[in-house]
Amino acid sequence: MGIFTRRKETAPCTVEVSHRFESLHAHVRFNNGAVVYPGDEVLVQGPEIMAPYGEVVREDRTAIITRATPLERLWTRLTGDLEFMELCEFSFSEEVKL
Predict the structure, then answer these.
(1) 8-12, long-range: CB within 8 Å, 24+ apart, which pairs?
(2) pLDDT-based confidence at residue 45 (cuts at 50, 70, 90)
(3) Cα–Cα dist 60/72, whole Å
(4) Exposure of 77 in the CB half-sphere (CA atoms within 13 A)
(5) Is the pLDDT of residue 91 over 60?
(6) What is the pLDDT of residues 61-87, one digit of tens each?
(7) Rounded CA gap, 23 and 5, in Å?
(8) Average pLDDT in the 34-38 region?
(9) 29 to each of 24, 33, 93, how far by Cα in Å?
């Protein structure tokens, strides 16, 4: 694997979509034990999965994992903490009510 070369691999996976009051989530589990590292991209093949309210839907699919180059992986590790802060919402207000 070169420093500027990305490689792709195919992995069987199970997609779980939950649309319940207790849990609203979508998870992908790789059935062959593949691991996703920082900077890697995952594309799950097939149409979107819509779970009706109150149900959990599980489907077997195929995923394409595009591995990051060593340079992309390093960049992701160095800047990941900074990008995480964009997800945080801060509020500073003098009007505090308990």
Answers:
(1) 8/64, 8/65, 8/66, 8/67, 9/34, 9/64, 9/65, 9/67, 10/62, 10/63, 10/64, 10/65, 11/62, 11/63, 11/64, 11/65, 12/60, 12/61, 12/62, 12/63
(2) very high
(3) 30
(4) 9
(5) no
(6) 999 999 999 888 888 888 877 666 666
(7) 39
(8) 92
(9) 17, 8, 42
Confidence (pTM): 0.74
Q: What is the rounded (10 degree) CA torsion for 26, 30, 34, 39?
A: -20
Dig out the tokens for 76 from the structure. Answer: 């992701």
**Range list of H helices, the chain:** 70-84
Pairwise CA distance, residues 15 & 64, whole Å: 13
> How far apart, in whole angstroms, are the C-alpha atoms of residue 74 and residue 67?
13
Amino acid identity for residue 7 in this structure = R
